[in-house]
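Fold Annotation — chain and its backbone
Next Lines — sequence and tokenised fold

***
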Amino acid sequence: MYTKIAPITINTKKKAGGAAEIFIAEPTPAREQLAGKLFILIEVEARKNDAQKIIDFIVSDINENYYQNDKLMLREKIEALKIENIFETVLVKTNKNLIDFLAEEKIILSPKSINATIGIIFGNELHFSNIGSNQALLLYKEETDSKYKMINVEKSEDAKDSSGDNLNFKKLFSSIISGEMPAKSYFIFANEALSEYLFNQELIEIITKLAPLGAAEQIKHTLFKINAYIPFMGIIIKNNFNHEEPENIEEYRQVEASRSISEQKDSNLTATAEKTEQILTPASVVNTRRVSGFCVRILKKINPFRLIGKLFKLIFKKKEHAANIPTTTLDRTALSAETSKNTSKIKKILLIILALALLAFLINLGIQKIRTKNTEQTQENKNYEEVIKQKESQIESYLLYNDENSAKGILKELKSYLDSIPEDKKAKIENYNELLAKYNDQMSQVQHITKVDQLKIVADFSAIGSDLNIENIMLIGDKVYAADNSQKAIYRLNSKDNVSAVISSEQIKSYLKYPTANKDGLIYYLDENQVVVLNPKDEKLAINKMALTEGQNLIGLYNYTDKLYALDKAKNQLYRYVLTGSEYPKAEPRLKSKLDASDVTYFTIDNEAGAEIGTMYFLKSSGEVKKFYAGIEDNKFTIDSIEPKITGATMIKVLTDIYILDPANKRLAVFTRKGKTKKQYQSEQLAKLKDFSVDEKSKKAYLLSDNIVYELPL
């Protein structure tokens, strides 16, 4: 990053009659690249508990409102959306929230009791708002001058009069100073005490000679010697655009130790250097120099190799001759036996100690490996969680501004990422189920999925008999006609009073498929090489023969302008049949463009009034739709790809919108005439979807699942 930042805090806990705090955000690298780094320097004069509550609230509210702001995700797409604009809206929101917080907590506070600096470092830019007595100092060099100069860039406000009457919480952070930091410059934000106790030249000397963290430590030591009771607060920001580091603290000690800035001995400066090094080392990183130094000192003292050598020497030491032991009256044989016995015991004890030590070492080594592995696993899980949360936040931002195309792109990326996570790791990711549920909700929102928990039952034909097998339905007015191939019968059910009737004929050969109706309400069914016609007025059946050639494989039947159309999958052709008497004597081909009908499952013709009347639509099992007008394919027409993907589409109907039945996903999908996703209706009750009918006037669809007809509000 372009900048380095270091805080200065001394005696803030000792502050009487109030509280003080410095907050520097630690966003992820990706978040910092997008939004920058937030910092807050704040003092509140009030009862200590109340003051701390106010500080905690302001810090938490600004941090959350800024980094979780939806507009951050849109900055790359909306050029006019600047960081300062987002920062300003966050401060306005915090002003309002602070008023509500003070009212809720019943805290009485004057705006004059708050001294605060709130800012954003974004790349080479600085945006901040300052209230109260805090100082905003800029150290910079002019091109013609090699010396640093200091100016106070704080913008004084007319609203802050001596009485403070015009300053209120609604405009607490109303003034924002923005701009690029000059090259090789420093910003120092400090409370009034710090700027009073250190002269400008002292600050310049310390800050320009040391890195920010080293300078902060040097200032702390200097101020602590001057006054150990007054709270001092400050933030040092260095423009590190050219990545030039100032002299380190050791060089500073050699050159500046004699000056009046520090007036400390080399020992104090050494302590400062060590403390600075400790601060500069991240909390999660082990200070290897200190650890290695400690280990070397311990090894020098105990010298484990010498101890192990002595241990082995004692264990495998040869027995000394009894003659070497001076004896007078003691029997040599007895002494030799006793000595050998004692030596054997010692060897056993030493061997046991050695074995236990080795075992303890191996156990400790194993524990360390397990801990390391667990730490790595925990970090890996956090990385998974962070990526998922980041992408879900992006999706929320796009949805907020109705940018569905961008949201779909991120959803696709997130789905690929979720699929790439091994199953055994998913269970170990914290809140994975909640993250997955949020992903599903976002997917449903983008894909316009409506899940219906309870559908109204319009007709339950299982009440007529348990051996029924309803294949299809046709809605004529308020009556539902259902064909049962197993019984070679048609059932009629009045949806208003549930009065039912059975219509059958011995002339029905084997099945009643693909019902289609004309404008007069006559219903046509395909039955092998004949058409069965039902007249709802008298509920009588008529039979019309069809001229079929050998090897024909007809699917679908549609009545358009009182002529029947059927698709022959074997010949990849749509045929028209014109009734002559009681027979359809010949088939007329209607397609001029080539159609691959091998995986076509259904077709329909646009029978609505309009420019596209007579347009033919052919549905494939994958959900792909082929559109033909006057027998010629419209190659530009496509249907949106939806999630979950269509894998076994069975029916298509075209009215004002395009309706596709997808039994595999228990779904009725609705598209506009241009093929854009409009709605998806899903229900667990639709486990065995077979057919559907749509009444757009009443905004209802009727779906056949097993032997039950359900009503679906559209």
